[in-house]
Amino acid sequence: MIRFENIKLGYGSRTLLEGASATFERGTLTALLGRNGAGKSTLLRAIAALGKVESGVVRLCEDDIKTLDAEQIARRISFVTTDKVRIPNLMCRDVVALGRAPYTNWIGRMQEIDREIVTEALAAVGMSDFACKTMDSMSDGECQRVMIARALAQQTPIILLDEPTAFLDLPTRHEVCSLLRRLAHEEGKTILFSTHDLDIAISQCDMAAIIDSPRLIYRPMAEVGEDVERIFGISK
After folding, report:
1. Residues 6 or more apart from 99 whose CB is under 8 A from it?
2. CB within 10 Å: which end of the chain, N or C, has fewer?
3. Which long-range contacts (CB under 8 A, 24 or more apart) does 122-125 make?
4. Are 33 and 197 in contact (CB under 8 A)?
5. How many CB atoms lie within 10 A of CB 6?
6. What is the per-residue pLDDT across 61-103, written as a single tens digit (0 to 9) for each?
7. How far is CA 98 from CA 41, 71, 147, 150, in A?
8. At what angle do helices 140-153 and 112-124 cross, to 10 degrees?
9. The dihedral of CA 36, 40, 45, 46: what is its sign?
10. What is the residue-averaged pLDDT of the chain?
11. Is there a contact between 114 and 104 (Cβ–Cβ < 8 Å)?
């Protein structure tokens, strides 16, 4: 669960959000929407404790994020960025294994239980047969699934994703969002992802969080039609 309590968020001298409050429940898939430059990535980074919240409180699983150390945050939240992992000779299973970093011993040695979790995470995203394939030899869609598997291996109740469907073709976009929906509903994850794919967001997501600076509109997806039309200039 993620909870905002009257947060203020800025970028440079610009105020992106002010007085924003919302609760993102377990088992829900939420699309973070907004025009280019609205602050979607800035908000995601603030939730992941990678950026500054000017005022207010961000809570992860009821705990004020300011009271948590790096390891505690890493056990609550995983973050899939838009960065492409294309390192030659880096196998998929090694990338997914990075998700076990908050749990391995002080020298980072994998135990049998960690290897089992990595195997399960790859299976969950349909990538078991790609475990020994190198990341530089895979498609964008396949790589995105591996990065989601890494987040699953981290075993956090919260998953954030920044533009997970960017650079993917339309069928793969639907596949990735369907996977996120299944993970939220079947595994009880709180999943929040930024996107410009309005059609996919509307068809797949439970909730919408729309940055209409300086407001945050947070409603069930079925209730944001007028807001989407106004903010994105869509004519009926």
Report:
1. 78, 118, 121, 149, 150, 151, 152, 153, 154, 155
2. C
3. 122/92, 122/93, 122/96, 122/146, 122/149, 124/149, 124/152, 124/183, 125/149, 125/152, 125/179
4. no
5. 11
6. 999 999 999 989 999 999 998 777 777 888 999 999 999 988 8
7. 22, 14, 10, 7
8. 140
9. positive
10. 89
11. yes
Q: Are 96 and 150 in contact (CB under 8 A)?
A: yes
How many Cα atoms occupy the beta-carbon half-sphere of 188 within 13 Å?
Answer: 4
- Pull the structure tokens for residue 149: 């598997």
Greatest CA separation for the chain: 58
